[in-house]
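Hey, quick one: can you model this chain's 3D structure?
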Amino acid sequence: MLLEMRDIVKVYGNVTANNHVNLSLNQGEILAVVGENGAGKSTIMKILYGMEKATSGEVFLNGEPVHFRSPADAIAKGIGMVQQHFMLFQSMTVTENIVYRNERRKGIFYDREANNNVVRELAKTYGLQVDPGAVISDLPVGTQQRVEILKILYQNANIIIFDEPSAVLTPLEVDELLKTMRHLADMGKSLIIITHKLREVMEIADRVVVMRAGEVVGETLKSETSIEQLSFIVLTGLFTACKCSTAWS
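Sure thing. Here's the predicted structure for all 249 residues.
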């Protein structure tokens, strides 16, 4: 087991966003966390990425407890997040965004050729075609997302969180994204997808966790469920209709 989040609670005033949530992630696995808006999916991932601090609970990475005070702490431990609204500088090039704050230099000067070569090699390794010299604002949304993924891979992320990754994509771009996700998992990366699109879950996920009202109400292997069963759990929080062998919490 690569990652464990144990008994996570997050309270905002009188609102409990996460109520004793337990999640785990295995090496090379694609885990889908599904649920309606307000289910607590994004909150639990923001805690994992250091954007929010849990009210209580523990996070373990490779069996060791970790404490993230900021995204920088999470990145340092190999956790990256592709957010729904990309964190890219629109006026900068693809390469400048990917290598930002960790550039190759000649003395004190930015080495454009060396940095472009690094990005070309990175893109080739992960099968994510980009033009290193293109300006972000000139690129379609799907390509910008590709740059965001490469930026995280450049930071040596082994765990990649995708927050509603297909929300802004065309159907063709969604297909390419799903292929990219599977390729990354095949290369040993571990992925967590926050989504409510169950067709994509059934196409790409290895395991599915269902959240409702801040709690985990179900967990199963993708191979042991269906869109109909997942829809029922998401909408009702009940699991009596599930006939799969995996135990539901």
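One thing worth noting: The CA atoms of residues 89 and 97 lie 7 Å apart.
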